[in-house]
Amino acid sequence: MEHIVIIGNGISGVTAARHIRKLFDKRITIISAETDYFFSRTALMYVYMGHMKFEHTQPYENHFWAKNRIELVRGFVNRVDTENKLLYLDGSRKVPYDKLVIATGSKPNKFGWPGQDLHGVQGLYSKQDLDLLEINAPNKKVCQRAVIVGGGLIGIELAEMLRSRDIPVTFLVRESSFWNGVLPEGESQMINEHITEHHIDLRLATNLKEIKADENGRVKSIIIEETGEELPCQFVGLTAGVSPNVDFLKDSGIELGRGVKVNRFLETNVKDVYAIGDCAEQHEAIGNRRPIEAVWYTGRMMGETLAQTLCGNRIEYKPGHWFNSAKFLDIEYQTYGWVFGARGRKENEAQFHWRHPQEKICLTVAYDKDSQAFLGINTFGIRMRHELFDRWLTEGREVKHVMTHLADANFDPEFFRTYEKDILHAFSEHTGESLTPKKKSLKRIFQSL
Amino acid sequence: MSTYERSMALTGQPPKQMKTSQKLASLLGMSGLFILVLAAFNVEFPASGWWLSASLLAMSAGIIWYSYSTYAGKHKGIKNDGVWFKSISSQGFWGWMAGVALTGFYIVLYFYPEYLGLAEKGGNTGVIALFDPLSKLLSGNPASQWFVYGALYTVAILAFGIKFLWKYRHNRYEIIRTISVMFFQTAFAFLIPEFMARLNGDKLNLPYYDLKNIWPLNYYNFEAYRVKSFISSGDIGLALLIFGIASVFIISPILTFYFGKRWYCSWVCGCGGLAETAGDSFRQLSDKSVKAWNIERWVIHSVLVFVTLTTTAVVYSYLGHDTSKYWLTKSTFLYGVVGLLTLVFGWAMLFKRKQLAKDAQYGAIGYFVIIIALVGMHLYSEEGHIFLFKSGTLRKNYSFLIGSIFSGVIGTGFYPVLGNRVWCRFGCPMAAILGFQQRLFSRFRITTNGGQCISCGNCSTYCEMGIDVRAYAQKGENIVRSSCVGCGICSAVCPRGVLKLENGPLKGRIDSQQVLLGNDVDLMQLVNQK
């Protein structure tokens, strides 16, 4: 029986395994050095905050794997011998494979800061990082101040986690406004305010110069590049992005860039070796996407796609319309289609921004100046219906259509206040054309079902 | 793992640690409870109502102050920090202690009310005497153990309801729903029946009737003594009796079709009301395993069969044979019951079989055969014996096993151990009927938002009914489950805006998918077509 070995038990590898099992009776083995069972990486923060126990982050009960004949091996792959189709695990164990899927995810970036490997300095990615955090920052007595370096999604999550235990946090963000490489200005500004009102010491346009050690090799302070200020702290969180976790493949003959180089079929340069998820790097970017996408949904979609190829139906990886979501402290964020921050914005992209006068609620709609085509939407504090935006993007709707039908797309719980009228009113003023909102219609919403 | 869990246990730190104001608030609440405990141990309080007022006020104020100090200073949003670190909410020492205390209270309440000071012929003592002034004020009668229980129950729903409102103040669905359960408990369960008792006199002889308490939850509603007093109370009584029947066969099916069973379970019902308010701190303790789900389905449906048999037997026992005296006779009634059950069974098996799992089909066939066989036996049994047992015996067993032990002692006593919806999930026959309809014939569903799920598990963890919500959400599949009471907390705790409780067309309501929205359209079509 053909033996498919998957390195990595994250969302990419596990999705691939599940879908292969649905299609074929192949032997499937998943190898992981991190944990015995698949867990949701995005949920680690909730374990530290006491919302969940670690077991709750595991989407499948433990008996699931044996029942579906997915073999789980706990071990670290040191070397891949593609000629003999052998994996060398730590110790002397060898695992042979017929087809190999590399789904090893990412590791936190370290940019060569002095002191970045001291005790009390860590990233937040793995289960081991979570365990380490419980040692480094269990409470505000042990950790009287924490410094977080890097203003992205993990950075703000780490800040929220530490604040849940009343640990004072200083948050160093390189950019002039939080995540403004991605978010348009108004949104980024609103998140700045929200971070501050959560009593997080937000330092914008601020870089880390150096981490200083005490006599035991533990962090005792950091130095800020711009001002030279020394901040005493007991913990430093490095959250300046992640990069593919592919060091173990250096001498394998598998082509590497920053990640494992793959074509549109998720195949590497070596026959029968594939890569998916965070660690895969497309030769050429797909549409507006980046060649490496360290996103949960991308990992899952690649897993869904690769399973087909491995089961004889060789198909290209063709992701649909971009979507994503996150939560910034108390504010939920969703995006459908493309809305660019100042940095990536293209010539033809026009934006309309609306913000609630009191509440931390806002949205930005991007559309084509010339064709008036709807390009994408970012919402903060309003939930939107994925299905509907996906449909509108496929149909190439004009922005006017989207704005007048926003009530259909609202996905907030029942009885929530809606703002479609206010939004459309502001949009009408923005464009100079008076528009009337359409009432929510179940018929339109569920038509495609 | 063990290293940090040890270190956790040793240090009292936020969010586990209580603030001073929270400690003082707890003390105030406990002092109110202490008055009741002293009364229970026969410490004499003047029966003027002052001590009772002081006790109820202290308990309410304690709870409200505690909530204020916990939530008021914080930003609105999800407030689950430290839930699994606190002993009371994570099946720790204080959780077990609370469980033992509550269980003890229920055992005394149901089986040894004399320890609470109940006296058969007036002259209550102890806690019950303490409640006499309030009872006399409302109904004119001295208190019973049930009055004491009802009053405390209402206070708990109101005070913890305010806590819940504070906790979820960002969520209008939760706010409106909670105000609804607080209203129905206070007005329908507590005040109206007391006022009805006051109206009783020569012409009126109404039984104690909580109008929203529908059969089969209110399993005794059609017993001889109640039906007699309804009928003897003129038009009002008759209207109430008809309302009782209509609520089972007309009102509830219509509302469940349009809104799902939530219209009852998490908006109106008293058991649900207590679970949602006082029980909110324990919702995460429900067992999410497939095994628990299997046990749930067998147990709850068996209770439904049990209550159907019991009620049929009880009603049968007091009907006559002679059609000239009253149109409804023993045999007409039995044939009616058999006809109705056959219709429901036939409809489900003919039109909805595809939506039933294998074991559900076997179970349905099994139950149906048993009921029909037992009902058929009435032809061969003596008077009063249908279904092999005397109706009185059946009734007594049901009331003891289900009415007292299951719904009270286990259902509420075990809140801090098994979660706040043990009764609703495993025992309530009303929930079973509503759930059956909700699963097969209702517009309600929890819509999963395309491909947005990140499998984090907050929804499953905080589902009080033990539904593994994530298992559906991560497949992009709507959640259509019998047991869902529509509390809306899964949607509230979801960090990515994936879940929405809504009512929509029946078509496409159950939409199992393999490849989720956001991926290649061709692949989705290829894989998702069946």
UniProtKB/TrEMBL annotation, chain A:
Pfam families linked to this entry: Pyr_redox_2 (PF07992)
Cofactor(s) of this protein: FAD
Gene3D superfamilies in alphabetical order: FAD/NAD(P)-binding domain (3.50.50.60)
Domain FAD/NAD(P)-binding: start-end pairs: 3-285
Record's keyword terms, sorted: FAD, Flavoprotein
Entry GO MF terms: oxidoreductase activity
Calcium in keyword set: no
PANTHER family found in the cross-reference section: NITRITE REDUCTASE [NAD(P)H] (PTHR43429:SF3), PYRIDINE NUCLEOTIDE-DISULFIDE OXIDOREDUCTASE DOMAIN-CONTAINING (PTHR43429)
Family: Belongs to the FAD-dependent oxidoreductase family.
Protein name from the UniProt record: FAD-dependent oxidoreductase
Automatic annotation (TrEMBL), chain B:
Domain of life: Bacteria
Record key words, sorted: 4Fe-4S, Electron transport, Iron, Iron-sulfur, Membrane, Metal-binding, Transmembrane, Transmembrane helix, Transport
InterPro entries (alphabetical): 4Fe4S_Fe-S-bd, 4Fe4S_Fe_S_CS, Electron_Trans/Redox
Keyword Transmembrane: yes
Ranges that cross the membrane: 24-43, 49-72, 93-112, 146-166, 178-197, 236-259, 298-319, 331-350, 362-380, 400-418
Protein name, UniProt field: FeS-binding protein
PROSITE patterns xref list: 4FE4S_FER_1, 4FE4S_FER_2
Annotated GO CC locations: plasma membrane
Molecular function via GO: 4 iron, 4 sulfur cluster binding; metal ion binding
SUPFAM superfamilies: 4Fe-4S ferredoxins
Residue ranges occupied by any 4Fe-4S ferredoxin-type domain in the UniProt entry: 444-472, 475-504
